Amino acid sequence: MKKNKQENGKKIKTALLCGGMVIIGIGVGYLMNGVKIPTIKDGSEIVAQVKGKKITADTLYSELKEQYGQGTLVSLIDEFIAGKETKEADVKEAKDYADSYIENLVSQYESYGENFEDALTQAGFENVDVYRELVVNDYLKNMVAEKYVKKNNFNDKDIKKYYNDNIEGSMVVRYILVQPETTEEMKDDEVKKAEEAALKEANEIIAKLKKGEDFAELAKKHSDDSTTASEGGLYNGFTKDEVVEEFWNASVKLKDGKYTTEPVESSYGYFVILRVKQNEKPSLKDSKQDILDALLEEAKTKDENLLTKAWVKIRKEYDLDLVDTDIKKAYNKLVKSYNEK
Questions:
Q1: How many angstroms separate the CA atoms of 25 and 78, rounded?
Q2: In whole angstroms, what separates CA 279 from the centre of its chain?
Q3: How many Cα atoms within 13 Å fall on the side-chain side of residue 95?
């Protein structure tokens, strides 16, 4: 079923508030530029008043501390640490990501006839620059946590095992994709008929191959993948993690110069694959960073709080000392809850 415009809009707004990443901090405080900013000396200074009520700096601090203190303070600490742990190139990468991410959000909002800046205002952001800074900071914090996990959670034995079990040489194939002609409005029986028609066409292509017809020419005529059809279905140098499992498994089983004698079913449709060759397996040294990335993703899947726990350890290495008793108590309680999950 198609999602209606309002439902899609809500999903995009949710993505906006999340920033598209794992937010390490518990909250972020923003200071709005004002004409008057009280100078705090002993906490008794008046920051606001109404008839019969005066609110002092101490009162405001106590209320803010209770609601946002622990999260805001930890966020400031993490931003400082991230600044120490990242380089200029990392900051550029984060800014490029933020620009691309926001550009995509603006485009999505426009497609639903909504204004991105209005949504930011409703979400409590002063302007786009403030939101961009949040995205950049969160990107850098995630980068620091991920580097910490890669360095401390995986040893040479883990890396070698993953290399032996999972790393293979990249593959070169030609393929023809036949996709069922379906729409979201179709009923189940209509979808089934479309799938059967696609399967029939894939089998007819295989029959033509058996009669000696050229694979590349058949790909140009029949493949529904416009990115490779014009090249005779050539797909050069892909790895296991770049294709669906069915495609990779079928390619690996073939010998060079041989094609699949039965259509390979996948979520994309039916594939007919001709294996050209498999390149030599890369060295352990050349594969190390890719392996660490894969191990990290596996670990994050197993423990959704992995990066948050990493930040707890990072702060400890930086000798974190929370002086305020209430904030320290709240922080320790939060850390304990992560370890219990």
A1: 8
A2: 29
A3: 8
Number of helical (H) and strand (E) elements in the chain, helices listed first? 14, 6
Quote the tokens at residue 124.
């409590």
- Please state, in angstroms and rounded to a whole number, the distance separating the CA atoms of residues 198 and 82: 52
Sequence-ordered list of residues with C-beta below 8 angstroms from that of 252, at least 6 positions apart, any chain: 168, 171, 278
Nearest to 233 by CA among 218, 243, 248: 218
Q: At CB < 8 A and 24+ separation, what contacts does 113-121 make?
A: 113/5, 114/9, 119/13, 119/16, 120/16
Rounded distance, CA 335 to CA 227, Å? 49
pLDDT band at 24 (very low <50, low <70, confident <90, very high): very low
Q: How many CB atoms lie within 10 A of CB 147?
A: 17
Choose among 168, 170, 323, 198: nearest CA to 270. Answer: 198
> What tokens appear for 135 in the block?
């995205």
Burial 240-261 (b: 16+ CB within 10 A, else e): beebeeebbebbeebeeeebbe
First and final C-alpha spacing in the chain: 36
Whole-number pLDDT of residue 9? 46
How long is the chain? 341
Other Cβ atoms within 10 Å of 53 Cβ, number: 7
Quick: pLDDT tens for 78-89: 999 999 999 999
What is the spatial distance between Cα 290 and Cα 107, in angstroms, rounded to a whole number? 32
| Biggest CA pair distance of the chain | 95
Question: Model pTM?
Answer: 0.71
CB 334 within 8 A of CB 168: no
Of the CA atoms within 13 Å of residue 320, those in its CB half-sphere come to: 22
